[in-house]
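Long-time lurker, first post.

We've been arguing in lab meeting about whether glutathione would sit comfortably in this protein at all. Half the group thinks yes, half thinks no, and nobody has a model to point at. So I'm putting the question to the forum: if I give you the sequence and the SMILES, can you give me back a predicted structure of the complex? Inputs are below. Any interpretation is welcome too.
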Amino acid sequence: MITVHHLNQSRSTRVLWLLEELQAPYEVVAHIRDAATHLAPASLKAIHPLAKAPVIVDGDITLCESGAVMEYILNTYGDQRLRPQPDSKDYYAYLEWLHFAEGSLALPVITSMLMSMEERGAKPLDGYIKKELHLDFSYIESRLTDATYFGGDEFSAADIMMTVMLGIAASLSMLKHYPNTQAYLTRMQARPAYLKAAAYS
Ligand SMILES: N[C@@H](CCC(=O)N[C@@H](CS)C(=O)NCC(=O)O)C(=O)O
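Top reply:
Settle the argument with this. Predicted structure of the protein with glutathione, as tokens:
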């Protein structure tokens, strides 16, 4: 059975959500952020040298990086669910959005979050971040104008990757001018499996 090393307020919600969608058995080991630094505790470093969540352990495998963990779970327990077939028309759109969440969107969103935690903003970064956020959210809004889900007509793991990052963006008031994205987020966050996963935070 998979053990999910869950850090409160972290990307490990993605992993819990996916497992709930698949109704796959798992157990959770909770790690609590340091109250002063907000960093992961030493207990997580004992599981993986990067000391970042999520980490899963399944038999001989210990794996971090939420995208890689999602792929592992789909390969091992997915039974062809929650991603388009590799020879389907939607497959590469699915793959793009699956990776976009961490590869492109995470940087400006997380940098903004960190800056908002500072008493004094890092002004030289402002121009860069605003440009990147505008580019990324315009692209997302356009995708969600054309498609119901990031992967096409069907809900997939790409939606899980994207929704968790979009939730952070919404909490930073970044979605005000992107009505389709906001509506999509509301829809995703109403999914029963998301609500179960989010209850772990
Ligand atoms: N790209 C990695 C990011 C991992 C990451 O930065 N995790 C954060 C939580 S969302 C973390 O563990 N932070 C605690 C720390 O750095 O001490 C992924 O998608 O898994």
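For your lab meeting: The chain has a mean pLDDT of 92. Residues 7, 10-11, 39-40, 51-54, 64-66, 102 surround glutathione (CB under 6 Å). Whichever side wins, do check it experimentally.
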